[in-house]
Amino acid sequence: MMKITGCRTHVVRVGHDESINGVHIVLRLQTDAGLEGISYITRLHDAAPAALSVVRLYVDRIVGMDPLAPEAITDRLLLRGRPLPWFEARAASAIDVALWDIRGKAAGQPVYKLMGGARDRVACYASWRIEPDKDLDKVARSAERHVASGFRAMKCHLGRESLSRAVEHMRVLREAVGPEVDIMVDVNQQWSVKQAIAYTRALAPFQPYWLEDATSNVDFEGLRQVSEAIEIPTCAGETYYSIASFRPLVEHRCVDIVMVDQDLGLSGALKVAHLAEIYGLKVVPHLATEILAHLIAAVSNGLTVEYYPWALPLFKQVPPVESGELVMSSRPGLGLELDESALSHYAYAGGN
Ligand SMILES: [Mg+2]
After folding, report:
1. Which of 111, 119, 173, 250 is deepest in the core (most CB within 10 A)?
2. Other CB atoms closer than 10 Å to residue 189's CB: what's the count?
3. How many whole angstroms separate alpha carbon 256 and alpha carbon 352?
């Protein structure tokens, strides 16, 4: 039996091409077979040193366990049945992703094939550059750059501006990209139920592809009311870090599209994707492009991948985007190789 022997970790702060500089913890989970499972977790900011100590504590707890038995490991780490702070869920998710990488490398297969292998190219959308506080000429130019670099879909963030400003933003964006490019709208829970309905009706002529996090993510009834009132598909889920949170979301038809974050781990995200499939719902990922693309390629109800490039410099090669689709690597595991010089170059002083 293969055994987990320990880990190496790196804390880095890195961004790329106008994306936000993210503070990431890179985990390299090691085994007695010489296979190393890699993963990263993100959105840590000043919490990185504390998160790092939880990751190391969790790895210590599983030394000697079989990396090919992730459910046994998750049981030990997540104390199933008890609510868990997100911080600990995130640390456990780093380990889960690294375990999938080891499993793929041991089998000589890419992770998305082991998880289901529904497709080897996945639709993706550009999810950076288009922010609400920029002038509208810049919004138009940024959107044109995304189209020029091969994207067929992109996301914009709204939420705090007046209704007329929001409409103007969408009009400029739609005119810049033309009728064939999909535009996702994310409001990060900033609207009330009535605002969400009123704003979305005003934006409808510009054909948003989906409305994301329309209102508070703990207000399941509010999400359901918004979803029922508008014709544009709704999407939510990025803030949930427990699979149980998705039960009311899908059971009460609060959304049309379920979004999963890496905090669930690839194992938890796969369970949620299967739950969504039972209810006829699509699934999409939140951030961690290089990792969660595997889930979307794996499952039949995978819709599209959020392409956010803030961790790209950490890897020697990443899946290319061709005709609006991410082309999955055929290399074993996650198909990612860490760039040692980048890990040194971007080392975050507040971390290691
Ligand atoms: Mg979002």
Report:
1. 111
2. 20
3. 42
Distance 36 CA to ligand 1 centre (A): 31
Same domain, 138 and 99: no
Structural domain includes residue 333: no
Q: Which residues contact 336 (CB under 8 A, 6 or more apart)?
A: 38, 101, 290, 315, 318, 329
Q: How far is the CA of 348 from the centre of ligand 1 (A)?
A: 26
pLDDT of residue 351: 46
At 138-195, the pLDDT tens digits run 999 999 999 999 999 999 999 999 999 999 999 999 999 999 999 999 999 999 999 9
C-alpha 120 – ligand 1 centre gap (Å): 25
Q: Does residue 199 sit in the same domain as residue 248?
A: yes
Q: Determine the structural domain holding residue 175 and report its residue range.
A: 112-327
**Residue recorded with tokens 């969400």:** 196
Which ranges of the chain have pLDDT less than 50? Answer: 351-352
- CA 76 / ligand 1 centre spacing (Å): 30
Distance 213 CA to ligand 1 centre (A): 7
178 part of a folded domain: yes
Q: How far is the CA of 124 from the centre of ligand 1 (A)?
A: 15
The percentage of residues in the chain with a pLDDT greater than 70, rounded to a whole number, is 97
CA of 20 to the centre of ligand 1 (A): 14
